[in-house]
Design goal:
The protein has 170 residues and is of the alpha+beta class. The chain has helices at 14-64, 107-118, and strands at 69-71, 82-86, 95-96, 121-127, 135-146, 149-160. It has one domain. The chain is built from two helices and six strands, in the order H-E-E-E-H-E-E-E. The protein is elongated.
Length: 170
């Protein structure tokens, strides 16, 4: 017996296709936003890690070789911070970071790596916790701009008072 008027459709209706496309597009948007967020977090982590490493290196240089810097210690001892600048330079708002001697040989890679180092600047200051303190607090502040916002990371160490040049000893 043949069926009359009852035909089986094969395939999807237009409504089903539109609903499926809407679900796929929402899922794609979510995945793309997760990807962009993870890239931003990776850049932030890289910059903070690099700033910490650069600040650590600069602080080590300041404490190992204080004679390479001008310690602008005021004549009358007090507990106010004073600037520490590179010898031969004036006190600046920030000193640029020097790129390492070992850089990529490829021009494009060299430019990328140089751009990373150029975004970081540092300042340093010293402070005697009290007038008769036997040590000087040395703070290095690393500064950079990320996503249009200024960022800052500070590391502090101590240096015996007699090692701080230019008026550091009593």
């Amino acid at each position: 017996m043949a069926q009359v008027g009852c035909q089986r459709r094969k395939g999807f209706s237009l409504i089903e296709i539109i609903v499926a496309l809407a679900i796929v597009s929402v899922a794609g948007t979510v995945f793309v936003s997760f990807y962009v967020s993870s890239m931003d977090l990776a850049r932030t982590a890289r910059n903070r890690g690099m700033a910490a490493q650069l600040a650590k290196e600069q602080l080590a240089l300041l404490t190992r070789h204080p004679e390479r810097f001008q310690w602008q210690i005021p004549a009358q001892s007090d507990t106010n911070p004073f600037p520490i600048v590179q010898t031969g330079t004036e006190a600046k708002t920030a000193n640029p970071i020097q790129a390492p001697a070992a850089m990529p040989l490829n021009e494009a890679a060299f430019q990328r790596e140089s751009a990373v180092y150029e975004q970081f600047h540092w300042t340093a200051q010293g402070r005697f916790p009290d007038v008769n303190a036997a040590y000087c607090e040395v703070t290095v502040v690393m500064q950079w701009v990320e996503a249009g916002r200024p960022q800052m990371l500070a590391l502090t160490s101590a240096l015996p008072r007699f090692q701080a040049p230019a008026g550091g000893s009593k």
